[in-house]
Design goal:
The structure is a homodimer. With about 200 residues, chain A is mostly helical. Chain A has one domain: Tetracycline Repressor, domain 2 (Orthogonal Bundle), CATH 1.10.357. Chain A is built from 9 helices and no strands. In chain A, helix 4 packs parallel to helix 7, helix 6 crosses helix 7 and helix 8 runs antiparallel to helix 9. The longest helix of chain A is centred in the middle third of the chain and has 27 residues. The first copy, chain A, is elongated, with a radius of gyration of 19 Å. The first copy, chain A, starts with 6 loop residues before the first helix and ends in a 10-residue tail after the last helix. Chain A binds a DNA duplex (30 and 30 nucleotides) through helix 3.
Chain lengths: ~200, ~200
DNA sequence: AAAATAGTTGACTATTTGGTCCACTTTGAT
DNA sequence: ATCAAAGTGGACCAAATAGTCAACTATTTT
């Protein structure tokens, strides 16, 4: 089968880091190659373009994230607990990245999706799909919470869209302001938004 | 006083459009000059760099937006009405841009801020400041609403952060998915998030 | 061991890009 | 009318960038 190599994986890792820490537009193929320790010839042996690499890199990463989310959103966990656990998870991820890179970086998919929304069609499509899948986790937790009578959410899909927008907004604000504390509001915001019973304002 | 020119303004307009329609990283100085109908020599006569131009362009635009927001958030308007009016305004702006450019483009500041968060310090600072100012409109409407007894929000700053994150999340989703309808949820989301009385779920 | 497969390398090209320079032109003020 | 300030044009440069290619090397299969 000829010689084997992990250059492909190194390239995917490199582009992920560079885009997340900087931006898609500001990362060059030369930079990616240097970070991955791979020559340009090899880059073009594996990929056709930066966009092509980005798609592969995102897919690979999503595979990993998905299993983490599967366990965070396990139906064995009470639905509101799942959301709380997800908030904690996001906080932990950002805290980790900050201690490693010195910056809060937010959600790589959301930032990238926003950046290239009018360019790179293939990449954009993939990002949309993955974000849609992520929203499903929230939707199902919300539906279960409604079924359990913990919240009132007759339209779980709509609620999930709202909650998802809020989460992504928070993460992006955390990136823009480089402030981890911003994410500290996530759980409270979730409860407010869903009107979780027991934490509601005292009715007037 | 020598000759006068609007080349400076044309450059600011051009960079705003290019960044909004594409991204900061993908717009080049040559492109900006071409769109503005200005030669590079003149560009560098007025500005030191792309980042320098971007700061000026943002400031200029913010001056205009601010007066619009001032009237949308006039204290003479009932607070919840202000928020509803703002949602409508956002929708109109996006609908307009879509019919002009063919795409929903979201909030230029938020997208830009997310893109360059780890680069271009001066620009980033300015974006943070303006976003902070925008949040103040929400904060004051929320405070007034609380005072009027229309909502329960003992910490208006916190509520404003939550609502702002939600709005920005929605706008960015609208950009990412190029879907205007996403913004149709804004008013409902606002009411849910603030627990506006009269639209609350029936208590169990 | 040979052959086929898989991956590497670095030198190379063409283009784009940011940035400079300065002679030139237009305009308002005197 | 003239002079200085304000702005323009475009040639020019160096560096960065995307992308190509053919010769080379390492590994597995037969």
């Amino acid at each position: 089968m000829g010689r084997v190599s992990d250059a492909k994986e190194r390239l995917m890792g490199a582009v992920r880091e560079l885009i997340w820490e900087g931006s898609y537009g500001s990362t060059t193929i030369d930079q990616i190659c240097e970070k991955a320790g791979v020559k340009k010839g090899s880059f073009y042996y594996f990929f056709d373009s930066k966009a092509d690499l980005a798609v592969a890199a995102i897919d690979e990463e999503w595979g990993r994230r998905r299993t983490e989310l599967d366990s965070l959103f396990s139906p064995t966990i009470p639905p509101i607990e799942r959301l709380r656990g997800y908030c904690d998870y996001c906080y932990r991820v950002q805290a980790e990245i900050r201690s490693k890179c010195g910056c809060v970086l937010g959600c790589p998919l959301f930032s990238l999706g926003s950046e290239i929304s009018t360019q790179e069609d293939r990449l954009q499509k993939r990002i949309q799909e993955i974000l849609d899948q992520k929203r499903k986790y929230l939707e199902s937790a919300i539906r279960d919470a409604h079924a359990a009578g913990v919240i009132h959410a007759p339209d779980p899909a709509a609620k999930a869209r709202t909650l998802f927008a809020y989460y992504q907004g928070l993460l992006t604000e955390a990136r823009i302001h480089d402030k981890l504390e911003i994410l500290g509001d996530a759980v409270r915001g979730t409860y407010e938004l869903l009107g979780v019973k027991g934490t509601e304002p005292v009715p007037a």
